[in-house]
Input
Amino acid sequence: MKSASVLLVDDDATFRQVMANELTRLGYQIEAVGTGEEAIRRISTSEPDVVLLDLRLPGMNGLDVLKSIHASAPATEVVMLTGHGSIDTAIESIRIGAFDYVVKPCPLDELHLRIQRAVERRSLRQRANLLERGLTPPDLGSSFVGESPEFRRLLKLIELVAPSDGTVLITGETGVGKERVAKLIHARSPRRFRPFVVVECATLQESLLESELFGHERGAFTGADRAKPGLFEVANGGTIFLDEIGEVSPATQTKLLRVLDTSTFRHVGGTAEIRVDVRVLTATNRDVSAMVRQGLFREDLFYRLSTITVEVPPLRSRGADVELMAQHFVTVLNERFGSGKQISEEAFQLLRRHNWPGNVRELLHVVEAAMVLCEGACILPEHLPPSFRDSRVTAMPSFSSNGASLLTLEQAEREHIRLALEASNGHRGNAARILGISERNLYRKLHEHGLLS
Output
């Protein structure tokens, strides 16, 4: 691991020499200079992690040097060195942007601790900047394909909802594309140039979820060897998307409600109030209103999250869109694979008949698998999964005018889970990946549907 680089700026030659030797012994890469002008020249050629800066210097004083450092090397953390008579000025330096100050003569262990904390903050800021640059999704509107009335109503609702700053609860079955809807809402909002942060609530253990959301201080729990910002901090100015919000425990629900009400929170193990400006979008495939009635979800949090509700329709209710979406996926995959394949009319007939319990995600996987298996230019029925050619399993059943023979939603989900387990030879981890849900969520559904063996 690379040791931290430190620039010591002090006009006392004896102090510089002694402190440089001691800090070198502690493992830091040390440079030492006697004037502010020389410090600025060094920083212009090699940006140190931390600057130890004396307030009283010949020529430029410490505050002027601090301002110059922040203008030319904003990522560098500055710790001020001050005498007892200059503490007010040292406090002023923190207002300007210094990380901290130490009163001279400085005990070495105290200085060592301040440098470590400054290095940690520099690392956290760099991580947050990298995440922010990588977490701004493009406008995905061109990939939203469909002509059905249900789909057009969804797009219209997104256009109405996106410009506001209200919380949005996105509901719908597994695989309908709730995260893509959230990304489109963000991309069409005034926050579009700020981060979009996704939190998979169902995949994290309770203690980890709290730490991920709110961050933690060093030493807050076993293994917390350094401070870490929460994802609410990373999303500051942008949008945070809490997927599978129905899986969150009552304790975390309480803390989420506080963030929504006050825009503040504390790190795990911390006492300082942190204020953020974040829009909250959530999604679930569960009936949260029923969970409220059962006492499993806070009623006040539910009402705060569902200021606006966007329901994403299942693919089976958008029958006219199946062919359009399949063709879209073929076009995208042809570009990725450098191929020119098409779907035959016979294969399209099977796709139209399918009930799509796995929704859009299932359609994408089916098309991608068919393109891999197809050696020619045309995807045929034999390139589709065997279940597609067995009308007894997944084909849309014929039904009377009252729809009596249609599978219920619960029956369709149970059958799709059973097929996923069958396809993965009973391996729950692989079945969960096929279904696009967490293994924990799969276990819950197996219990609900009586499929646990």
The first helix runs from residue 13 to 25. The chain has three domains: 5-133, 141-311, 316-448.
